[in-house]
Amino acid sequence: MNSENxxxxxxxxxxxxxxxxFWGFVAASNDILIPVFKKAFDLTQGQSQLVSLxxxxxxxxxxxxxxxxxxxxxxxxxxxxxxxxGLALGLGISALGTLLFYPAANTGSFTLMLSGLFIVxxxxxxxxxxxxxxxxxxxxxxxxxxxxxxxxGINNFGTTIGPLVVSFAIFGSSAxxxxxxxxxxxxxxxxVLGLAFLLVAVLLKFSSLPDxxxxxxxxxxxxxxSRSSALKYPQLIMGMIAIFVYVGVEVSTASNLPAYMESKLxxxxxxxxxxxxxxxxxxxxxxxxxxxxxFTNDIxxxxxxKFLAPYLAFGVFLIVNAIAKHDLTPFYVYGLIILVLIxxxxxxxxxxARMLLIFSSLGIAALFIGMTTSGMTxxxxxxxxxxxxxxxxxxxxxxxxxxxxxxxxQGSSFLxxxxxxxxxxxxxxxxxxxxxxxxxxxxxxxxCFAYLAFYAWxxxxxxxxxxxxxxxxxxxxx
Length: 478
Fold this sequence. Notes:
By secondary structure, this protein is mainly alpha-helical.
């Protein structure tokens, strides 16, 4: 590590996190598109979840294309073209995807809409590959995970306002009276988004971001020194499944929520946006709490901020919805549920395996409450899943790549590939809901959390056998 690299390089980090914002903005906005497309194209619930499937499967396809090109070049693609060029290229690909929304809206083509989302996410795949390690490199390695958490918090700021902005753009300010929207109203917001992609690509291209940041190579222990591939580590293999089901339950809980609120509670499509926003804000609430370590090493201040940060993030959600002129009264009670998050965070003591076990168990409890109650109690239960998902990415990621040494970056790319779980699990829940009902279909999420709890228990023994002590604070974000 460079001796000058003693603190976070905020001048470089701040421009970088704009791409994290985009990932969240678009991903959460899909939850607004799903009910819109379902009505406009007369789709079943299972068919409507093709939106999530097309979006998240693109991460896997993008990773495979990246690996294939690198193999043909006999050199890593990003190392060849540079990190800034990699980000600019990824943003350019995403911008091309938004262009398809124009002919798709004009012709009323669901296939073209899906193709546009697929290409947008294809660009995101390359951006993810570049931006995650770059965020770690912009400062001391000891606070790299906190920078990823902070970037994850910015990501979730995007997920918080994305549904509100897109809903406003589609339905307009008089959403309550606008029950018959035209599919053509989708094209303008996504063309504007494409322009934003291009502007940020130019910004990053001419920013002071390093083109080839200094690589950090972990010291390997004797147990793992002879392993030539990341796939030879059991913690990674099981971790890949864990990432798949984690992103799956995170995305499917939100993407199936509109159908539940419409069919069981009588909500109008355009009135659901604040609750989708609350779900994604819940992830922001948890991740802002985990980012505290990036700002101060003072233990007393960290304890204070771990109580203040989640409510500050909750305040952002309330302010954004106040600006959007939504009634805030239904959301104040959520402040009490946040206390559960804080208590769980304290009980975990920063141990990633313990945190994964506790938060997965709370996720199971939240889903069961949502499945067995009715009215707003069930809605709050389902949205609280966002709170308990908020810490899972850093826990899984840390456990999965622990001890990989020189294979760490390869292992990271395999984990990013498994983001496709967001689409597959969402589609599976939507498909199953047609047989057992939308509320009961959340049993799929229970199964996902159950595997995560198992992984938390199993990986502890695996890593101990390799002589790895991971009983320390970790963080990160998707």
